[in-house]
Every structure is written in structure tokens, then in C-alpha cells.
């Protein structure tokens, strides 16, 4: 006499009264729950080792955020959000960060100032005079 399982086993065999032995990749009382290894992060395990990702996520385990923007100096870690590499900021990680800030110039790479004409120094705070000041300091370009 064959064993009877109620409810019936979905992805396995009824091996004793109301006892299912699940096929590989399935679990649960009736073998109706798929098993994913590794587990799905932002989605559901819908078949053995197959994740169906939540909206905005991709990858084998749904751990990669989708994005409509391009992260220039960083990575998309959650949907439409960039996590910037060190030294970069902004929505798309395209703005260099200088600390301290550039005074008379632009921050063109992390901690790298490109000085306006007539200025020099790490933060572009030193005026440049074409002729040396004899009895004073150069306080502005050629002044």
C-alpha cells in the first residue's frame, strides 16, 4: 500500500503517511518552497537556485542595483543611487573633493586644485607676481 500525503507533495515523493521527501532544491512540508544558495538578497527564490528580483535589482542573488544614471567614479549599490569612490561626490560621483577647498581655482581630481591664472599653491591661495615685490608681499596677481 502506498503512503498517502494530504496535501500532496508538490516537488517530491510521499514516503510515509503525510511525510514528503523533497527533490533536490526544494523544501517545506509539501516540497513547495524553492531553495537558493546563496540566498536571494532583494527578491524571492522562485525555483532551485533561481532568484526573481524585486524592481530595481538584478544579479544572480538580486544584489546589484539597477540605475538609470551612470556612476562616473563609483558604483550603483542601490537602485538609482551611486556610492562614490573616496575623493568623489555628487549624484553621479563626478565632482572631485578637495580638503581643504581650492581658494582661487577648481578641484579637478581628489585633493588636486587647478589654479586660476595668477595663483599657485596646493589650494591656489598664493598670488603670483611676474616681478618680485621688493618692499612688500604679492597679495593678488601682479599686485
Automatic annotation (TrEMBL):
It comes from the Eukaryota. The keyword Disulfide bond applies. InterPro entries: Dev_Signal_Modulators, EGF. The keyword Transit peptide does not apply. Residues 51-62, 113-124 form the EGF-like domain. Keywords: Disulfide bond, Signal. It holds the Pfam family EGF_DL_JAG. This is EGF-like domain-containing protein.
